[in-house]
Design a protein that fits this description.
Length: about 325
């Protein structure tokens, strides 16, 4: 373990995973946290709740398809939704650097309000701190959210079973490519927009279509690759995905080639992987494709029994490669 925090401790790859499992989990030990799902699903008298929190430090804070405000709401709404929760209430804590433009702040807050309205939630509590120039970079936002869980099944990586189908709701890499294109000032890719969106409506349709959803996870930092590798390891099963079945927009593919990046590991803010029994895959796929955030949904793989958890890709050139959690520097401050 490094004696100082490195940028890679925040990139969603191997060092992030080690920081969580070796430093945070042993100290903060509790059954709920240790499940390491997107939300904590909690029992309260009369109802199951889910509860989650995330910090947003995206740079630049305005980007094609959104800004740090909409991102902070969508991210937390989505972490509740993929645990089967109906998002109810959010909190927002802001850390703002002295000198940040008031007009920009108003745009960001308005964007949070609009995102919350469209997801049907309220930001019910918040906090603001301002730090001296140089002590933060622009604005950082932490949101937390509470949702009510009424789905009867347990939606968790632990519930994934051999025979499950893996379904993705649309093309990957758009958020990461939008941020990087803006950062690198790539002119040709000006039509790449972040996919940042609230997924709770889509999740409602999925849950209504299938009473046996085993796991859902939004593929944010670290991309679809990191999420599938995580679920393979947590479930102890073999996850095989067909590379050619994963949709990638042409503009995103082009930007990735220029930047030397793999869309599999680029961040998304409106994409999720769904695990359900193969018999239910048709119904789930149809429900997803009839929703605006699932039009390009596709079955991308399947789960099999295994002696150890592993994520294997059938590549477009006909080979197979095992994919592990990404390590080394990915892309800092992508969300
Ligand atoms: Mg998540």
């Amino acid at each position: 373990m490094a004696d100082k925090i490195l940028l890679e401790h925040g990139d969603g790859g191997l060092l992030t995973n080690r920081l969580i499992t070796e430093t945070f989990l042993p100290l903060l030990k509790n059954d709920v946290l240790e499940r390491m799902d997107d939300s904590a699903v909690l029992k309260s008298p009369g109802a199951w709740l889910c509860f989650t929190t995330d910090s947003y430090v995206v740079q630049p804070c305005f980007f094609p398809g959104g800004d740090i405000g909409s991102l902070a709401v969508h991210g937390t709404v989505n972490d509740l939704a993929v645990c089967g929760g109906t998002p109810l209430h959010l909190s927002a804590a802001l850390i703002i650097e002295e000198g940040f433009a008031m007009d920009d702040l108003r745009v960001i807050i308005a964007s949070m309000a609009e995102a919350a309205r469209s997801a049907g939630v309220g930001i019910v509590t918040g906090d603001t701190k301002v730090v001296p120039r140089g002590a933060a970079d622009g604005i950082f936002i932490t949101t937390a959210g509470i949702g009510a869980v009424s789905y009867s099944g347990t939606i968790s990586a632990e519930s994934v079973r051999p025979g499950d189908a893996v379904i993705l709701n649309g093309p990957i890499g758009n958020h990461g490519a939008a941020i990087l294109s803006k950062r690198e000032n790539l002119q040709f890719s000006s039509d790449i927009r972040s996919d940042s969106a609230p997924l709770n409506g889509l999740v409602n349709e999925i849950l209504a279509a299938c009473p046996r959803i085993h796991c859902m996870r939004d593929a944010t930092r670290g991309g679809l690759g990191a999420v599938l590798a995580e679920i393979a390891h947590q479930s102890g099963l073999r996850l095989t995905v067909s590379e050619k079945s994963i949709p990638v927009d042409e503009a995103v593919r082009g930007a990735c080639e220029i930047l030397g990046l793999d869309p599999l590991f680029l961040a998304n803010e409106g994409k999720m992987a769904v695990f359900c029994p193969a018999d239910d895959a048709g119904a789930v796929l149809a429900a997803m494709q009839s929703h605006e955030y699932g039009r390009a949904a596709a079955v991308i793989g399947h789960v099999a029994a295994s002696e150890r958890g592993c994520f294997v890709m059938d590549t477009v050139i006909g080979g197979q490669r095992e994919i592990d959690l990404p390590s080394g520097e990915l892309v800092p401050r992508i969300c």
